[in-house]
Design a protein that fits this description.
Number of helices: 15
Structural class: mainly alpha
Shape: globular
CATH class of the largest domain: Mainly Alpha
Largest sheet: 3 strands, antiparallel
CATH topology of the largest domain: hpI Integrase, Chain A
Helix content: 40-55%
CATH superfamily of the largest domain: Intergrase catalytic core
Strand content: 5-15%
Number of strands: 6
Radius of gyration: 25 Å
Strand order of the largest sheet: 1-2-3
Length: about 400
């Protein structure tokens, strides 16, 4: 018999086994602080034990190593056709939002249909099949990069699963036209964030003077969520809730306290499939402490950000609502419309690197599954510093 056991903030699997008349207890870590992740891991282990594939009493019994091997077996799918490889790839992306999966499906299905290779073996695909789509006439630079990103992700998945054994995307990349840098315009500055907060506060003051004002309907969650994006670099649905995603919405178990002081935000495997612990920035801590005083104690399984009143009372605040409210207040504050929630995440990662963190450290905090994703922020920081230096030099010359 197996069941879950929690020690401090970490979940373990515990086995009670009777063998040769003796009752034995085996406890092994599941290396997660989130209950739903532990439950899924326990379910897989129970199936493996039932099928005789594992024995908890063996000397080298390690649940995490076993589950990692199982995941590799599940992903190492044999695909005899290009269409089958697409279907297997989409299954591997089921942890992502439905919108993201649909984008992959649309782009790659278009590639397959356009080239008429649905029933070809994946190793029969050629570089010109991809170039037929990426470099076709009358499409924008952004669309070319859209296709390139989705095709490369699919191809990398096939390489990782030994479906194909060669790569020509480096050659395609050399031919790709440069697109205008679009990350920094999305990034909010601290000054702009405070302008948004000011607009939020001014609206709250106006509403409080109305005769029908209900304090229980105040969006107390707005400021702390904005700070989670800006200072902790969370993705939209890591802080806000989404019914499409199993990992969405910050819960009580994600808040790590030490001596009753909030110290870390813990995020389990999600989009990047990487666990991460993010130290609390002083500004973020101040906003969360203030919110939690109003919110009250949050149980491990409860969502942190909820509605206090109205028809949605007790329900978690969705990422879409957060985005809508941010855009509304940003407009009231005359903040550029190019600023986004994901741009706040970009700002957080960039600021970590500018403060001196290594790319590896920034990748860990951001939860990037590939350090190459983080490297673009290094280049972004270097470009920003170069622009500053040029402005200083030009100013000195003019003086």
């Amino acid at each position: 018999m197996a069941y879950l056991k929690k020690r401090r903030n970490t979940w373990y699997v515990r086995y009670h086994i009777v063998e040769y008349g003796k009752e034995l207890t085996i406890t092994r870590t599941l290396k997660t602080k989130r209950k739903d992740v532990a439950e899924k891991r326990l379910e897989k282990l129970e199936k493996l034990e039932k099928n005789g594939r594992i024995h908890p009493l063996s000397d080298n019994f390690n649940p995490i190593e076993i589950l990692n091997r199982l995941e590799e077996e599940e992903q190492n799918t044999k695909c005899n056709t290009v269409q089958e490889s697409l279907e297997a790839f989409l299954k591997s992306k089921k942890h992502l939002s439905s919108k993201t999966v649909e984008a992959y499906e649309w782009a790659i299905q278009h590639f397959i249909d356009h080239n008429g290779i649905a029933f070809h073996h994946p190793i029969e695909m050629r570089i010109d099949h991809f170039e037929n789509i990426i470099f076709k006439d009358d499409i924008s630079i952004q669309t070319r990069h859209y296709y390139f990103r989705h095709f490369r992700a699919w191809w990398n998945w096939m390489l990782d699963n030994n479906i194909v054994d060669f790569d020509f995307f480096d050659a395609i990349k050399k031919k790709m036209p440069k697109k205008k840098e679009s990350t920094r315009p999305k990034m909010i500055t601290l000054e702009e964030l405070y302008q948004v907060f000011k607009a939020y506060g001014e609206e709250l003051v106006r509403k409080s003077k109305r005769p029908d004002f209900d304090a229980k309907k105040v969006q107390y969650w707005f400021r702390p969520i904005m700070c989670l994006y800006t200072f902790a670099g969370l993705r939209k649905h890591e802080a806000g809730y989404s019914s499409d995603l199993p990992y969405s919405g910050l819960k009580g178990e994600n808040l790590i306290f030490k001596n009753k002081e909030l110290e870390y935000i813990y995020i389990p495997p999600g989009k990047g499939r990487k666990e991460k612990e993010i130290p609390i920035h002083p500004i973020l801590k101040k906003e969360l402490d203030r919110y939690l005083k109003v919110r009250g104690e949050v149980d491990q399984d409860e969502y942190v950000f909820i509605y206090f009143g109205g028809r949605f009372k007790g329900r978690p605040v969705s990422g879409q609502v957060v985005y809508k409210e941010f855009k509304r207040y940003a407009e009231l504050a005359d903040v550029p419309s190019s600023r986004t929630l994901h741009g706040m995440r970009h700002r957080a990662v960039t600021s970590w690197i500018e403060l001196g963190l290594s790319t590896a450290d920034a990748a860990f905090l951001a939860g990037h599954s590939n350090q190459r994703v983080t490297e673009k922020y290094t280049h972004l920081t270097a470009k920003h510093l170069k622009d500053k230096m040029n402005r200083l030099t030009n100013k000195k010359d003019s003086d």
